[in-house]
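User: Hey, quick favor. My workstation is busy. Could you predict this chain's structure for me?
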Amino acid sequence: MQTLDAALVAMRPRFERAERGWMADAPPAMTKLSTGRQDNFVVTRSEMRRDQTSRWHRHIEMQIIFLHDGLLSLTIDDRSHLVTPGHAVWIPSTSAHQIHASKPSAVMSAYLDPMQWAAVAPFPMGSFIAPTAGVLLEKLLNTSPERRSRDVDEAVLTLLQDEAADELPLALTVPMPKDPRLLAVCRELLRAPQKWQRKAELAAIGGMSVRTMSRLFQSDLGVTYSEWAQDMLVHRAIAMLQQGMPVTTVAFDLGYDSHSAFTAMFRRLTGRSPSEWRERR
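Assistant: No problem, here it is.
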């Protein structure tokens, strides 16, 4: 019987074509990622380079993306999700999506055939905290098909859905712009969030003035620069707090001069203090 590793090697060209995707200025083609498994639940592991971007693509399979390490911006249809380590994102069947890695990133994906898994309840849209997802998906990846069963796969999905349902009510989602100048600014902030107060330097990265940058945030994203930057900072802070970093360290690493200013911003946007969030990890 073919091992799961051997099956994945045989499937790799199909997955690579899907992850590369198609041209962004054309409707992405629909693909079917044949896996050779009767119930079509396949887990893959991949690495993305810094600044690597997939083309727009879509496939019939539902997909769960889990980030081990790094930082991803995952756009699904018309919404972008900031994916930090320890978080997962649900991609519905046939949804067009694109992935950008702001840092070298280690990614795991699970693909589910909607015909075989029609009874699976959708996960919440957006990025959700999934502390055991890496362990569970790694276990499936390293288990040979003869030792895999539908019951095991269902149990893994149930555990992942329980984690998603137990998340604090904050969607780790930030809009990403279409304007290439503003996109360069936002990606630089994702890479180096402590630069959020250096607006002139950021505007120069986008090849524009601070005034033009501010105008583009309003026209392209419908928010001010400060609103977008603060949402991004909260998302990054949550990832750092989950890793057990002290609140003061998180505040300073994100460019705040004082613990109190950072705490006030965090509480205003999340309804909880950074310490409360850290204690939940």
